Amino acid sequence: MDTFLLFLLVGALAQAVDGSLGMAYGVISSSVLLALGVPPAMASASVHGAEVFTTAASASSHVWHKNVEWRLFIPLAVAGVIGGVLGAYVLSGLDGEVIKPFIVVYLAGMGLYILWRAGHDIEPRRIRQWKVAPLGVIGGFLDAIGGGGWGPTVSSTMVGAGAEPRRAIGTVNTAEFFLTVAISATFVWALVTGHWEEAGALENHAAAIGGLVVGGLLAAPFAGWITKRLPRRALTYGVGGLLVLLAGFQGLQLAGVVA
Questions:
Q1: Quick check: 180 and 48 in contact, CB under 8 A?
Q2: Integer Cα distance of 145 and 221 in angstroms
Q3: Helix (H, G, I), strand (E, B) or coil at 66
């Protein structure tokens, strides 16, 4: 029961941040699981299983509060699903830690750039549809192998490119539901076909997964409301600041300073 309550708190806090700033649920949840010794593929599968429920609630909230830019949603969701399926299949057979240093550098650089944009209060600009498709493929792939790369990669790049933060966050969060379902289905397929040999140990982490689901569901309905109410400049500062913090934490992990 202690494990369930711990992960309920982790899930609620992670989803509150993720729903309002477009990132962090997967990164925070995966980091806690990895710190407890859970293998990368198992941690990613656990988080994505929980996210099937939390992203559905978060997406509904963003749709209700009209935070979604629909012309960007379809190409982003389709591309994200393609990248996510490829990433899940790769991770269930390989270790995706190799590219993590490059992701940390990218997130840190993008975070600093977004903070610069916020400081200069640069007005949003229209993002072309064709630009989000390759971004979706990359974000989906990184999300599957890293257990939380969709928001930091896609939300940050869209905000950095000049998209209105509220629309970028709402669109990315809504598309994430379809990505999460596709990644979870791929993990199930890898289990059924025997491609993923260690999947049987998932039952050992049922309490953690349950806590992530319940905690995330408690916080997710407020996602759209928070994003809608926060001023554009405050959202931009929030996204940039969170990226720098996430990059710093993951950098410390790579250096072995923190577990």
A1: yes
A2: 27
A3: coil
